[in-house]
């Protein structure tokens, strides 16, 4: 396997409502990416009355799989002040502070959400301080640019990294080599992580994050090309430390 390095760091402060690229991140042992899916917008059909006590399934929230236009939201979040700016090609910018401006954020998102689905209700956080990621385990999502290019080649189009809502993108791994690392450990910057399992994808990845429009069936391409719908892997942070763009990735023997 070639020398590999960290090429992109991405977080999504509000679930399915914007992606933000970073230069560095301080990973914490046994925790997901800091300030990734800290908030989510619950719908009127959510299975909890106010804030969820712990992890809750994505069906309770606004999500890109249900409305592709959400995929085109970009975020700029400052964790020190709580200030959040969201932009979308079809909406004026949202500028606010979380969680205080949660009602205004819900109102900003409402025109992007189908009227045929349960309406947005409120911005929520977990009462236990955890993340509202798609799976209950406190994972970080690691993805490969080599695999992305291979999938894009099969589809006959360049694919944005933001279709896949990952956290750490690696350059230098052979296409699909990340699946061979399941059960193994890697070092990255000051941290060590264990690759745990593949990430099975949903229809959200079929939307172009520049426009929010359907543009290429990633799921069909994965199924026909490789016999599954997996893209990327989940990893567990084994020790705390900072990761920075350009950090070398080493596979632990």
What would you say this structure looks like, in words?
The protein is mainly β and about 250 residues long. It is about 10% helix and about 35% strand. A hairpin with an 8-residue loop joins strand 1 and strand 2. The model has no long low-confidence stretch (mean pLDDT about 95). It is built from three helices and 15 strands. The protein has a seven-stranded mixed beta barrel. Strands 5-6-7 form a three-stranded antiparallel beta sheet, with helices on one face. The chain has a two-stranded antiparallel ribbon with strand order 3-14. The protein is globular, with a radius of gyration of 18 Å.
Which class best fits the helix and strand makeup?
mainly beta
Strand content: 25-35%
Write down the overall mean pLDDT. Answer: 96
Assembly context of the chains: single chain
Number of helices: 3
Helix residue percentage: 10-25%
**Total strand segments:** 15
Give the helices and strands as they follow along the chain.
EEEEEEEHEEHEEEHEEE
> Main sheet?
7 strands, mixed, barrel
Shape: globular
Rg, Cα atoms, Å: 18 Å
* Main sheet: strand order: 1-10-9-13-12-11-15
Cα end-to-end separation:
13 Å
Spans where pLDDT lies below 50 across 5 or more residues: none
């Amino acid at each position: 396997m070639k020398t590999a390095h960290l090429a992109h760091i991405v977080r999504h402060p509000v679930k399915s409502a914007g992606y933000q690229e970073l230069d560095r991140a301080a990973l914490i042992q046994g925790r997901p990416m800091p300030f990734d899916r800290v908030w989510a917008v619950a719908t009127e059909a959510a299975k909890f009355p106010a804030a969820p006590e712990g992890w809750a399934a994505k069906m309770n929230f606004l999500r890109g799989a249900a409305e592709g236009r959400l995929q085109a939201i970009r975020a700029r979040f400052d964790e020190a002040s709580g200030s959040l700016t969201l932009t979308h090609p079809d909406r004026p910018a949202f500028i606010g502070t979380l969680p205080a401006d949660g009602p205004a954020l819900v109102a900003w998102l409402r025109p992007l959400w189908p009227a045929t689905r349960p309406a947005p209700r409120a911005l929520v956080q977990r009462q236990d301080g955890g993340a509202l990621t798609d799976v209950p385990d406190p994972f970080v999502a690691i993805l490969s640019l080599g695999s992305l290019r291979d999938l894009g080649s099969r589809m006959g189009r360049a694919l944005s990294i933001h279709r896949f809502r990952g956290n750490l993108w690696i350059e230098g791994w052979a296409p699909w080599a990340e699946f061979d690392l399941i059960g193994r450990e890697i070092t990255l910057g000051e941290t060590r992580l264990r690759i745990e399992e593949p990430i099975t994808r949903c229809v959200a990845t079929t939307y172009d994050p520049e426009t929010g429009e359907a543009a290429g069936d990633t799921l069909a391409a994965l199924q026909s090309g490789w016999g599954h719908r997996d893209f990327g892997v989940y990893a567990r942070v084994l020790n705390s430390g900072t990761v920075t763009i350009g950090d070398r990735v080493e596979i632990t023997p």
